[in-house]
Write a structure and sequence with these properties.
By secondary structure, this protein is an alpha/beta fold. The chain has 3 domains: 163 residues, no CATH class; 117 residues, Nucleotidyltransferase, domain 5 (2-Layer Sandwich); 163 residues, no CATH class. Helix 7 links the parallel strand 9 and strand 10. Helix 4 packs across helix 18 and helix 14 packs antiparallel against helix 16. It binds zinc ion.
């Protein structure tokens, strides 16, 4: 922010006839002069691409009320250090950022009194009752920040809206959230309700290799615990936090198959059912089988000089990773677009500016392309079969029939002879009971997937802040639908 200060406290920019009286929102403040208005240039863009906005800042000068001044004198008659007499010892001005007035900012220039001991060096300064903690803002401004931060607002936007430094915005919001989600000793609150099923998973937090382990209530999606480590002592810490009574009533834990979390939970509470849900199984298949197989196939085709086919596989990444049903639906849309003579492609959801545009490229027979691709390729064909079987497995009505489908998956994977498929076969085989547990408990994986999106959203909103505590508090808050 760029502003030039001057000390013309009493300079009026409107005549008294044009002025109106409003509540100060700073109880105890007594304005002594008029106001002084200056214009500041605020950068609402970035450092690289500045967008300069001119903002008016009204400075109101005054002190504290006569009652408060009298109280200050009465309370500081005698020196608490040596018992000597205290006397008035000048005053000082403190500038506090205050509420906004339309798009203008206001600030209070508050004169506060000082008293000093006439014997020793002790001195005391008047406390400003409407100051927000130790920040140079008023309580009303602090309330304005929280209002601007509600429902996932960004610190940057709140800072511009309120005319307050971004770091202060973050500090105010953080201490508010901490007050909401921790007790008076700064310890995280216990889970608000008894969870029957918990989900535990590790997620990438910031860009790079920063992981955190998150424990959620699978029914509500509320985050109950976050720790910035992948280690299993997270489980121990959470159990200590939630308590024995809570853990005894939990029925099951949904988690990923590769992690040691299941073992750690089982070790502490043997009654817990370990559930490997659909979300994690599909994720493993996508990341550990589909992706490497596709890449390997591309390489093989290239090595055999079949560049056109390799290129087609590369370009059709989307096709090889989506299900037949999705492709069919896209084809139907495309065919319709072709019939209507549409040539342009445009994202769906436009209603205001209707035009002859299609959400998918017209014509283009995706299912046929897909079938062409897999016809001559055994591994792509196996991918297709296993994916359909996985979908089928989670639709089976009971554990017995689900088991049969899963065993089918194991044998298809083994027959391919491919290392990635064989890895997946072993994964399914080794975790069969936990996968089938789904059919009994019917734990949905929707909440787990929701958390991924939540982290992305909050990460974007909190971008630039390396404060992990603040980031975790915002995740807790967001997972509860921003109640605070
Ligand atoms: Zn003294």
């Amino acid at each position: 922010m760029n502003y030039k200060e001057s000390q013309h406290h009493s300079q009026l920019t409107v005549t008294p006839d044009e002025a109106i009286r409003l509540p100060s929102y700073a109880p105890g403040f007594r304005q002594t002069g008029g106001w002084f208005t200056r214009t500041a240039e605020i950068n609402t863009g970035t450092r690289a691409k500045p967008v300069i906005v001119k903002k008016k800042i009204h400075r109101l000068t005054g002190g504290l009320s006569a009652e408060l001044n009298a109280m200050f004198a009465a309370e500081n008659e005698v020196c608490p250090v040596c018992g000597g007499h205290m006397h008035a010892h000048g005053s000082e001005y403190v500038l506090l950022k205050h509420i906004t007035l339309g798009s203008d900012y206001t600030e209070l220039n508050v004169c506060r009194l000082r008293r000093a001991c006439s014997v020793c060096t002790y001195s005391v300064t008047q406390r400003i009752p409407f100051q927000d903690g130790s920040h140079r803002i008023t309580r009303a401004a602090g309330a304005g920040i929280l209002h601007a931060m509600k429902h996932g607002g960004t610190c940057k936007k709140a800072a511009i809206d309120c005319g307050i430094n971004r770091n202060i915005v973050m500090e105010v919001h953080k201490s508010h959230l901490a007050g909401y989600y921790t007790d008076c000793d700064g310890v995280l609150i216990k889970p608000e309700r008894q969870a029957l099923y918990l989900g535990i998973d590790e997620w990438k937090l910031h860009d790079g290799n920063h992981y955190a382990t998150i424990i959620i209530d699978l029914e509500t999606g509320h985050i109950l615990w976050i720790q910035d480590t992948k280690k299993t002592d997270v489980v121990r810490n959470f159990i200590a936090h939630a308590g024995d009574e809570f853990m005894k009533k939990v029925k099951g834990i949904a988690c990923d198959m590769n992690a040691d979390f299941a073992r750690a939970f089982k070790k502490a509470y043997d009654h817990l059912e370990i559930i490997y849900d659909r979300f994690h199984l599909i994720r493993n298949f996508n990341e550990k089988v589909i992706t490497p197989v596709r890449i390997a196939e591309q390489k093989r085709l290239k090595a055999e000089g079949r560049h056109e086919e390799a290129e087609r596989l590369r370009r059709n990444r989307y096709i090889t990773t989506s299900s037949r049903d999705t492709l069919k639906a896209k084809d139907a849309q495309g065919a319709e677009a072709l019939k209507a003579g549409v040539t342009d492609v445009r994202p769906s959801g436009q209603t205001l500016f209707k035009s002859l545009r299609s959400p998918v490229p017209p014509g283009d027979n995706r299912l046929e392309t897909y079938e062409d691709l897999i016809r001559d390729n055994r591994l792509l064909c196996a991918l297709d079969i296993v994916r359909e079987q996985l979908r089928q497995a989670y639709m089976e009505p009971d554990a017995g029939s689900m088991k049969k489908v899963l065993e089918g998956i194991v044998s298809v994977c083994r027959e391919t002879g491919n290392e990635h498929f064989k890895w997946f076969a072993k994964l399914v085989k080794d975790h069969l009971d936990g996968i089938i547990a789904y059919a009994v408990h019917r734990v949905t994986s929707g909440k787990c997937e929701g958390i991924v999106n939540l982290i992305k959203t909050v990460r974007r909103a909190a971008y630039g802040f390396k404060d992990t505590d603040y980031f975790f508090l915002r995740l807790l808050d967001a997972s509860r639908g921003y109640p605070a």
